[in-house]
Amino acid sequence: MSEYLGSQKVNRSAYAVKEAAPTTIYLGVCERDNRPVRLEMPVDLGPTAEIPCFVGCTLPVKCERLHAVTTRLECDGSCMGARGPICNCGCGGINHGRHWGKGALLAQREVVESALANYRAEQAKIAQRREATREAAARRERSVFDDWAADHHDVIRALDPWHEHRTDDAWLEAHPVRGSHILVDLAIQAHGGWNGKPKPLTDPQVELVFKILGEAADRQRAEAERKANARPAPEGKGIKVSGEIIKVRASEGYAGEVHHEATVKCDGYAIRVTVPKAVLDWGWRERRGVIMAPNAHVSFRSYDTDWDGFASGGPRPSGEPRSPSRPARSSGGPRTRPSALPSDPPK
Q: Model pTM?
């Protein structure tokens, strides 16, 4: 049975794989005549055996079993299992399509048992040195992280909840924060690490953590202030609507017409109203159909199209009457009703 000794990359996906198979050939040195003795036995006698010289004398000779060491060129499945005529592998085509056979033979030799044992011992030492190098690198990385963590307790504490509840969808939904997925990723990096090795956050990452948490705190304060100063939204017709359009929704109305509703942020409340036709016409004429814009305010009465224009949209278009006659309303008729939507425009 062959024993795997190791492999070495030759070129691209081609590797030189070395294997050893025990034989029944024994090699020793006759002490009386000081000459090598090579004996082929019918059975395996083990790693070492004392065998009579049989050549010139009958003294026992301590012999070692020989191993046949072969080095073959092995490639990955894209080369060994190929069916086409073109080979782009590092073997140069020598292994192309050799799926049902072994890789091309590079070298073959025989070594004694002690030489193979020395090789195994040397490979074990190399593996120990590599493991020691990895452990030293891990200790250095941990030391760097510990030094960073000692100076950034506030960052780690701020990310503690996001690491604790990183897989708790219910908690994440109950704490909606824009950028919560970023906080979860950074919390994993600063606590356990993706592969069990925590890494310090960079300065831009630390700034991003406080930016996201700061914006979330500002939104919570603004929402609390809005709720504290909230007023009941008026209902009915003939209501003066003055505020900022923060959302527009279009739906199919009667006879294929498009019905537009807008959420208007007013003083202390938000209402949803049918958009007057004059506002829609103005938007198509002056803003290419965009009636919702940052800091754009509108003022009109809900039962007609009396409006004062956009405060930040420039002067009123020439020829536009301030109180035009009542035009045809949008399908569904203008109406207002309280809105459960937040009055703060989305960021």
A: 0.51
